[in-house]
From TrEMBL:
It comes from Clostridium gasigenes. InterPro entries: Csp_YhjQ, YHJQ-like. The lineage of its organism: Bacteria, Bacillati, Bacillota, Clostridia, Eubacteriales. Pfam families: Csp (PF03860). This is Uncharacterized protein.
Length: 115
């Protein structure tokens, strides 16, 4: 159920997944910056921010019933999968947890697009 109205019922699971993924990406971003091998993580760090931003935008568009929700969710799924694969390259706990959230978000976004 939506927070203020029932208008988001059909997309609430995806909104929640996007919000969790955004948070996980920012947390992982901060943690990666503090890792000893930060230079090896440049691609991962970059996609973490891109993924968090895309998740935020997708969540916002779903919340307001935007007309391009399906298109954003499709791109969000693609970016989340790329971010997860980057996180999979690192075996620390924060990257593994972030990758899990990214895959979960990608799955929910695919459901929104009918994929």
């Amino acid at each position: 159920m939506g927070i203020a109205t029932n208008s988001t019922n059909k997309s609430q699971a995806c909104i929640d997944a996007c919000n969790r993924c955004e948070q996980a990406c920012y947390e992982c971003f901060k943690a990666c910056l503090n890792e000893a091998d930060v230079n090896k993580r440049k691609n991962c760090i970059s996609i973490l921010v891109e993924c968090a931003q895309m998740c935020q935008m997708s969540s916002s568009l779903m919340s307001m019933g935007g007309q391009f929700v399906k298109e954003h969710c499709k791109l969000c799924a693609t970016i989340c999968e790329k971010c997860a694969s980057e996180c999979d390259m690192f075996k620390d706990e924060h990257c593994m947890r972030c990758g899990t959230e990214c895959y979960s978000c990608a799955d929910e976004c695919k459901k929104m697009t009918g994929m």
